[in-house]
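Input/output pair, single chain:
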Amino acid sequence: MNSEGLWQRCWVYDDYRRNLGLKTQRVKLMSDAERDTIYRMRYWALIKGDSLPPGRFPTLPSMAP
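Output:
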């Protein structure tokens, strides 16, 4: 299942919750805070998004400086 670009069984959401000691749940129940944290950890940090020039790449509202 996919929600906002995050896959459940392909490790992303399930692994995130397991690493926090939480039970897995349907990705449809993911909170905005969980989504933002996963994007920051798994995607944004990998591309060094904070080093990219401003205004050229989309960000989540919670990632805005």
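The chain has a mean pLDDT of 78. The helical segments are 12-19, 32-44.
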